[in-house]
């Protein structure tokens, strides 16, 4: 039994400190000793009873002082890094460090409320797209879900929040004029063959940069897409170059893409170009066989490819500006993929076939992304129908009998 400063019995676990304050101790359901304090005996008894009730009702947590930053490090190490692809890991890291950590990182897990999370997501929604904000909410929701499983918090403050944000970014494709001018200006460029293959196959940048000659089937005129090339920050001197070959994220991304004569010629030219490059100075089974590389015969970064595209586009725009013509919009290597799909739809290729070319998981993804392109095609198709109807209506129904 505890006593006050005058020796009076106060009850089990309750004592009076030298400064006159009262304290009460108890062992919670985690086996951890807890202390509560009060200026009066009644106050400390009420605080003790509240803590005991919370412990019985499982409203307390194992470590009320653990911050979101501390939990994020454990969550990544235990639950994410062992099972996710390196490309997905980088997305999680970037999402947390760019959007979540600056606002909530230093706060104790148990102190983060739904109001705080909603305020964060609403603020991000004013400058980011809905899909991006939703990805941030998904990361937060997963963080708190695992935290609850480990008795680090009692509620998930990221659940049930309505996401706001700007609509999906408009798909950028090259018009026929843009495509013509770009490829005319790109002739002789080191990456010209890659541009040609990209716009004729719809392959993603990572898939293009991971291609080897073994992936090309010249007999059947097809390209086997089975891997992707990613770049990561080297964590140690043992990390080779900072590049990694991995399988695509989804099964549908593993596919066989037909190769037209234009694409085939570009690949054959690329093989000849590889013979003019310096020999590789590293040993790697796959990286040493890449089809599209830098001038130094090294794996190609997406940023380097983007820089080469900007150079060609700027050269086009210099001529257009001098002739008072509309400038070519900014675009990335992914635009070649969108342009390929657009040309497919313009040529009348069914969406289901385009889906297989692009490696989309389902037809709805293809339809959602290219809604505007398909809408434009509907208008052009109805004009063709109108022309056909006019031809029929203007024809004589019967020939005059002589």
Automatic annotation (TrEMBL):
This protein's UniProt keywords: DNA recombination, DNA-binding
Gene3D superfamilies: 1.10.150.130, Classic Zinc Finger (3.30.160.60), Intergrase catalytic core (1.10.443.10)
Membrane-spanning intervals of the chain: none
Domain (Tyr recombinase): residue spans on this chain: 169-384
InterPro entries: CB, DNA_brk_join_enz, Integrase-like_cat_sf, Integrase_catalytic, Integrase_recombinase_N, Integrase_Tn916-type_DNA-bd_N, Phage_int_M, Tyrosine_recombinase_XerCD
One Pfam family matching this protein: Phage_int_M
Domain Core-binding (CB) stretches: 66-148
Keyword set includes Glycosyltransferase: no
Entry's family note: Belongs to the 'phage' integrase family.
PANTHER family attached to this UniProt entry: INTEGRASE_RECOMBINASE PROTEIN MJ0367-RELATED, PHAGE INTEGRASE-RELATED
Full protein name: Tyrosine-type recombinase/integrase
């Amino acid at each position: 039994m505890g006593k006050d400063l005058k020796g009076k019995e106060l009850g089990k676990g309750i004592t009076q400190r030298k400064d006159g304050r009262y304290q009460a101790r108890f062992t919670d359901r985690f086996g951890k000793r807890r202390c509560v304090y009060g200026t009066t005996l009644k106050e400390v008894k009420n605080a003790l009873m509240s803590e005991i009730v919370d412990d019985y009702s499982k409203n307390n947590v194992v470590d009320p002082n653990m911050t979101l930053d501390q939990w994020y490090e454990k969550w990544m190490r235990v639950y994410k890094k062992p099972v996710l692809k390196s490309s997905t890991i980088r997305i999680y890291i970037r999402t947390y460090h760019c959007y979540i950590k600056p606002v909530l990182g230093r706060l104790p897990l148990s102190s983060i409320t739904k109001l705080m999370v909603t305020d964060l997501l609403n603020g991000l929604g004013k400058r980011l797209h809905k899909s991006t904000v939703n990805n941030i909410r998904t990361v937060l929701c997963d963080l708190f879900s695992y935290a609850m499983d480990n008795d680090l918090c009692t509620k998930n403050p990221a659940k049930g929040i309505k996401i706001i944000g700007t609509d999906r970014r408009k798909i950028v494709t090259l018009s026929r004029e843009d495509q013509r001018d770009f490829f005319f200006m790109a002739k002789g460029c080191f990456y010209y063959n890659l541009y040609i293959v990209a716009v004729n196959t719809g392959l993603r940048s990572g898939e293009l940069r991971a291609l080897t000659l073994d992936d090309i089937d010249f007999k059947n005129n097809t390209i086997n897409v089975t891997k992707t090339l990613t770049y990561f920050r080297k964590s140690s001197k043992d990390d080779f170059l900072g590049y990694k070959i991995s399988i695509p994220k989804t099964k549908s991304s593993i596919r066989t893409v037909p190769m037209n004569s234009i694409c085939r010629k570009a690949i054959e030219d690329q093989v000849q170009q590889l013979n003019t490059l310096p020999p590789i100075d590293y040993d790697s089974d796959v990286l040493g066989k890449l089809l599209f590389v830098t001038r130094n015969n090294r794996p190609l970064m997406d940023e380097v490819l983007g820089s080469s595209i900007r150079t060609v586009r700027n050269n086009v725009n210099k001529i257009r500006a001098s002739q008072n013509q509309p400038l070519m919009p900014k675009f990335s290597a992914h635009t070649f993929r969108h342009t390929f799909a657009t040309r497919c739809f313009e040529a009348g290729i069914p969406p289901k076939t385009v889906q297989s070319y692009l490696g989309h998981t389902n037809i709805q993804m293809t339809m959602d992304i290219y809604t505007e392109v398909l809408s434009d095609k509907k208008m052009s198709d109805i004009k063709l129908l109108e022309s056909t109807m006019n031809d029929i209506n203007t024809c004589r129904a019967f020939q005059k009998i002589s």
